[in-house]
Amino acid sequence: MLLYLSEVLTQYISGFNVFTYITMRAIMGALTALVISLVFGPVMIRRLHIRQIGQTVRDYGPETHLLKSGTPTMGGLLILVAILLSTVLWSDLTNPYVWIVVGVTVVYGAIGYVDDYRKLILKDPAGLSAKAKLFWQSLGAAAVAVILYRLAEAPYQTALLIPYLKDVLLPLGVLFIPLTFLVIVGTSNAVNLTDGLDGLAIMPTVLVGGALGIFGYAAGNTIFSEYLGIPFIAGAGEMMVFCASLAGAGLGFLWFNTYPAQVFMGDIGALALGAALGTVAVIVRQELVLVIMGGLFVIETLSVIIQVASFKLTGRRVFRMAPLHHHYELKGWAEPKVIVRFWIITVILVLVGLSSLKLR
Predict the structure, then answer these.
(1) Cys-Cys crosslink for 82: which of 10, 25, 36, 233, Cβ 3.0 to 4.6 Å?
(2) 164/161 Cα distance (integer angstroms)
(3) Which of 342, 29, 1 is nearest to 213 (CA)?
(4) Alpha-carbon dihedral sign for residues 186, 192, 194, 199
(5) CA–CA separation, 287 vs 145, rounded Å?
């Protein structure tokens, strides 16, 4: 929106031309989302307190979590509002990828909202049933997969890029659709599983989102994409603005979500953010790099799968509790130690993923 205004004002004041650059709009997007989060965060927390929309702690969880009971939840709404407003203000609204990633964020946010609403307001412990949740997630992911497939203008835009190997692209053809489906649904649920400690999920989301924004900028630039040996995706550069907005909104939310948390994001935030990351990764053709950078999400998800499979097959548990962060809590690690160490792991993995831009 403001891009068009700056283009008009540039005719009269040349200095406004700076706002036509993606990099500048990404910076402004991050700052805008950050300010929205910081300004409206306290207001949202007070309203959630008044309406008694608080966290319900499971009896079989770590005992230290009993203190979290009643902490305002559904704070993810703040993140989504900040991201969406900032994106609409600073993005090129003629770009189809912008609306695709915005649409995914809204749809998955709505799924999370229904689940949170049933659990926290209607006091239904089951919330949205697993089958219903997966159905709506699948429907949204399938729609995005088909749209992105139809938008592809060349075979390489639907090929699977193998990181660290020069000019190695595996043509997928129509298999691009199920891959996209799995990436979006998988990432959405992986982030949701990771969201179990104060700030544990939001900081890795910010880090991975910021890195994907760099990939988007490179993929959308003919010179950079050719130099780095990655597929050129016309319009993918706008993903940098979206990812910067996500990072700004996430950092603003972390101000209130850091230990001890004043608010939790709930499914409305976790499901939407995970789906957004997965969609951006598909757009910029970095699905495998997402697996590397989002390794924490992958490990947390695998710990749940391993725990369930082991218990059903052998009657024994591999971990003291799943997801993995609870295992370390029960081993005696203080919650802040678990959180910070998992953040450090994510920083390392993101740097490893970013190195694939040059190491080929």
Answers:
(1) 36
(2) 9
(3) 29
(4) positive
(5) 13
Distance CA 204, CA 201 (A): 6
pTM above 0.90, yes or no: yes
Three-state SS string over the chain comes to CHHHHHHHHHCCCHHHHHHHCHHHHHHHHHHHHHHHHHHHHHHHHHHHHHCCCECCCCCCCCHHHHHHCCCECCCHHHHHHHHHHHHHHHCCCCCHHHHHHHHHHHHHHHHHHHHHHHHHHCCCCCCCCHHHHHHHHHHHHHHHHHHHHHHCCCHHHHCEECCCCCCCEECCHHHHHHHHHHHHHHHHHHHHHHCCCCCCCHHHHHHHHHHHHHHHHHHCCHHHHHHHCCCCCCCHHHHHHHHHHHHHHHHHHHHHHCCCCCCCCHHHHHHHHHHHHHHHHHHCCCHHHHHHHCHHHHHHHHHHHHHHHHHHHHCCCCCCCCCHHHHHHHCCCCHHHHHHHHHHHHHHHHHHHHHCCCCC
Angle between helices 2-10 and 76-90 (to 10 degrees): 30
Is there a contact between 101 and 13 (Cβ–Cβ < 8 Å)? no
| Separation between Cα atoms, residue 274 and residue 186, nearest integer Å | 8
Q: Which region holds residue 235: left if phi is over 0, alpha if psi is between -120 and 50, else beta?
A: left
For the ranges 52-66, 73-87, 150-164, 341-355, which has the lowest average pLDDT?
52-66
In angstroms, the CA 181 to CA 158 distance is 13
Which stretch of 48-52, 89-93, 292-296, 298-302 has the lowest confidence by average pLDDT?
48-52
pLDDT for 308 equals 94
User: Residue 112 and residue 74: Cα distance in Å, rounded?
Assistant: 9
Check if the beta carbon of residue 98 is closer than 8 Å to that of residue 87.
yes
Q: Which residues pair with 161 in a beta bridge?
A: 169
Angle at 106 between CA 130 and CA 26, to 5 degrees: 130
| Amino acid occupying residue 305 | I
CA atoms of 113 and 76, how far apart (whole Å):
9
